[in-house]
Structures are given as structure tokens and as C-alpha cells.
Amino acid sequence: MRIAAFSDTHGNKDDMRDAVRRFGPLDLLVHLGDGIREGRQAAEAAGIPFCGVRGNNDHGGPLLPDQTAIDVQGWQFLLTHGHETGMNPYNPEPAWQTYLREMAARAKDLGAHALLFGHAHKPVLQRENGVVLCNPGDQHTGTRTGPSFALIELEASAARFRIFRKNKASDWDLLLELRHVRTLPSTPRSSGSTPDA
Questions:
Q1: Residue 91 phi, psi dihedral angles, 5° rounding
Q2: CATH architecture under which domain 2-181 falls
């Protein structure tokens, strides 16, 4: 199972569609807010299922939740944009790490193996308290760094998370990588949803 996760595209359709085309075939496209419309359109154009959450700059169109839990082949993912936490990449590093620990604790309480979030416009890939924290970064046209996204490959007991960033030559470079082994089954404490088919 191959999942592409995007966030904070803010109207930029081209880089997301380029990533979907170059890294396909994909089984699911996830959008973590602030650009869910173009996320849904990219998934429809590629003929793959879509799942997403609303960001603080998503207005109008089909309503999506601020947070959702999904089960993908026994892997539990908690999806959120992240604006409700008050975290941002300009916080001092100790405050930033405190937010990440709190988010990981919340995800773990809900039985998630991984928390996918956006809002910060900053790629994050780390393990905290047994939970993978993944922010794919952004594709905002005003970003000072290149557009980025996350590629997640799931197996029965292991997952490979990678974040790629587009360089000035329009190639996608590997930025971060993490392999996570699921040792114990996890059951969410709240009802989750499944991606659109």
C-alpha cells in the first residue's frame, strides 16, 4: 500500500500532480488541509481514493472534519491540520518539541500508529512515544524552500515513511526517512473512518 500525503498546497496544483505522476502508482492520496479542494481534484484525476481534513484556510466546498482517524490495512492513522494546537514552526525549539510530544500523546491515546499533520509548513518526521509524527511540509508557491510531500509505504508489520522535496531542477530529493515496525496490534478508542473509494 502506497500513500502520498500533502499539506498546505494553498492553490498549487502542479507540484502535487507532478508528485502523484512521478511516484505512482499510489493507493491513496491524503491531504492535511489548506488546499483540500486541489487534493481531491488531484486524486480524482489520478483515479485514486482520497481522504483529507479541513485546514484553517479551507472555506466552502465539501465539508471535511478537522480531525479524523483512518484504518489502512490495520495501520491506524490520526489526521489533523494542526491549527487547533497553536503550534507553529516559529516557536523556540523546546516549545516546538513540547507540542510534538503532546500531539504524540493524544495520537497514542486514540490508538494511532502515526499522526499526520500540516499547518506548520515545516517537514517533520520523527518517532515520539512509539508514534510516528509526520508533517509533509508544504507546497505553497511563496515558500522559501522547495515543495515537499510524504510517501508512506505499508507492509503487514512495517511502514516506510519518506519526505521528498523538489529541487530547482524539478527533481524530487529524499529529505527525511524513517522505518517504523509495528510490534503490537492497536485498536483506536474512537470510531474512525475509511478513505473514499
A1: -65, 150
A2: 4-Layer Sandwich (3.60)
